[in-house]
Amino acid sequence: MNENITTPSTRGPQEHDVRDQVIEAATRHFGHYGYEKTTVSDLAKAIGFSKAYIYKFFDSKQAIGEVICSNRLAMIMEIVNAAIDQAPTASEKLRRLFRSISEAGSDLFFHDRKLYDIAAVASRDQWPSVQAHELRIRAIIQQILVDGREAGEFERKTPLDEAANAIFLILRPYVNAAQLQYNLDTVSEAAAHLPALILRSLAP
Amino acid sequence: MNENITTPSTRGPQEHDVRDQVIEAATRHFGHYGYEKTTVSDLAKAIGFSKAYIYKFFDSKQAIGEVICSNRLAMIMEIVNAAIDQAPTASEKLRRLFRSISEAGSDLFFHDRKLYDIAAVASRDQWPSVQAHELRIRAIIQQILVDGREAGEFERKTPLDEAANAIFLILRPYVNAAQLQYNLDTVSEAAAHLPALILRSLAP
């Protein structure tokens, strides 16, 4: 019916550029005025596109928010991976995971508060981007456990899944933006003492 | 200037009754209509007192909310203490602390949602009642650690304060109503696996 509606896979480079342009402008706009109170009409007016034109590329405001959120979470994953990659031991990887995740989240809160608010909405409502992010963090924890068990650093009696889940539950209040805002006072204490407690629990 | 303003210590039994009456009615009213969107005027109208009369007993809406919140937190503490009191070992006390706290919080969420919302506001804004509650939970954790160390159940190398803090940080997302609402899906998993991990970390 509508020739303008295409699936992502058939979109040409030009359409891709327009999507990027909308995202870039929306990131600036939401970053200034906030996400929850801004409508697609406000956004369209501010960036000089028609509302209908924006809807050709994105189904909803949330679809735009999702891309912004995914981009930001990808940046956080880069920080986390960079922090972990060079760690000499599994124990040190675990410490760096806690530190980098909570620092990256706090930085976003203190330096980009309005974008943090998108992450908080996304976490509260468990958007797909947030679910995927949490699964990635969960997978990193599991890999650290496997490495540490193989290297003889960690005990092997506890079922791997149970140990990984419990550690993920301990880290989650610092991963999930909706919760992190209530834990900002204790972030640095948590980033030091939580991995220390976990490492005591992992002693062979 | 105003003869009707008295300090709490000089209030007679009759005034005490009126305070109780206001709290009882406010608990019902907020429990039905919610706390955040209800004004003292709404409340006064609903319970048949004048707004000025209510203000003779409470400085603000928050002062009323504080009493309701304290009452509810006292009920939760009773549940927690009853669960812990009869536990045969420090390890079992720790397990029951996690279970009772998270069950009491979830019960409030699922069965008294509007009163839960008061607790969530109180936790978000760290009302004195919530701070006192968190200190009480922190003190229970410390006492369990002392008991377990004396009984030879727990290691004694880690500074007591550090161990107690770390355990409190792990439990806090289930104590703090503002955070608990994001953890409802994993409450029962958390209540089983988190104390298990902590107990592994406490092994002598």
From TrEMBL, chains A, B:
Keywords attached to this entry: DNA-binding, Transcription, Transcription regulation
This protein's record includes keyword DNA-binding: yes
PROSITE patterns according to UniProt: HTH_TETR_2
GO molecular function: DNA-binding transcription factor activity; transcription cis-regulatory region binding
Protein name: TetR/AcrR family transcriptional regulator
InterPro entries according to UniProt: Homeodomain-like_sf (IPR009057), HTH-type_TetR-like_transc_reg (IPR050109), HTH_TetR (IPR001647), Tet_transcr_reg_TetR-rel_C_sf (IPR036271), TetR_C_27 (IPR041478)
SUPFAM superfamilies with a match to the protein in the record: Homeodomain-like, Tetracyclin repressor-like, C-terminal domain
